[in-house]
From TrEMBL:
One of its GO terms (biological process) is methylation. Its EC number is 2.1.1.63. Residues 75-151 form the Methylated-DNA-[protein]-cysteine S-methyltransferase DNA binding domain. The keyword DNA repair applies. Pfam families: DNA_binding_1 (PF01035). It catalyses: a 6-O-methyl-2'-deoxyguanosine in DNA + L-cysteinyl-[protein] = S-methyl-L-cysteinyl-[protein] + a 2'-deoxyguanosine in DNA; a 4-O-methyl-thymidine in DNA + L-cysteinyl-[protein] = a thymidine in DNA + S-methyl-L-cysteinyl-[protein]. SUPFAM superfamilies: Methylated DNA-protein cysteine methyltransferase, C-terminal domain (SSF46767). Keywords: DNA damage, DNA repair, Methyltransferase, Transferase. It comes from the Bacteria. GO terms for molecular function: methylated-DNA-[protein]-cysteine S-methyltransferase activity. InterPro entries: MethylDNA_cys_MeTrfase_AS, MethylDNA_cys_MeTrfase_DNA-bd, MethylDNA_cys_MeTrfase_DNAb, WH-like_DNA-bd_sf. This is Methylated-DNA--protein-cysteine methyltransferase.
Length: 156
């Protein structure tokens, strides 16, 4: 089912569920903020996602969703759990995040953990930037730019 929002970044959030549990999120470019939810999501999951995205579209900091993270290395899990609590419009560098979780020389590994994020936007890896530029992104870099521009009113 597709839902659109009156405001928000120009992306489509594609939601997949397995056994009524959120299993994967994919971001694509769009002319407006929308989401497509697979038929495998139950009504409660769908309503939770729509509510979260609606709050986000109004630049409110939605409460973190609970996820079953797939089997990932422990370091990746630490990165993603920390990111899940990163406030709306707050940026962190790869290096600072590595230091925060106790691995000060692991900035590249933080980037790898972000790239493996199965729930982008809900776990905001787009808020992790390089020390002197925007850094990379698992999707088209214009999606990261759209998210940051929306959250921070930045012109990138």
């Amino acid at each position: 089912m597709q839902h659109s929002f009156n405001q928000g970044p120009s992306i489509c959030v594609q939601i997949e569920c397995k056994d009524s549990i959120l299993s994967k999120v994919t971001l694509t470019k769009s002319s407006y903020f929308a989401c497509c939810i697979s038929k495998e999501c139950d009504l409660d999951t769908e309503q939770t996602i729509i509510k979260w995205l609606a709050q986000y579209s109004y630049r409110k900091d939605p409460s973190p969703l609970s996820f079953n993270l797939p089997k990932l290395p422990l370091f990746y899990q630490k990165v993603l759990i920390h990111l899940q609590n990163l406030p709306f419009a707050q940026l962190v560098t790869y290096g600072n995040l590595a230091s925060t979780i106790g691995h000060p020389k692991a900035a590249r590994a933080v980037g790898s953990a972000c790239k493996s994020n199965p729930f982008p936007l809900f776990i905001p890896c787009h808020r992790v930037v390089a020390a002197h530029n925007i850094g990379g992104f698992a999707y088209d870099l214009s999606i990261k730019q759209a998210l940051l521009q929306f959250e921070m009113d930045l012109i990138l």
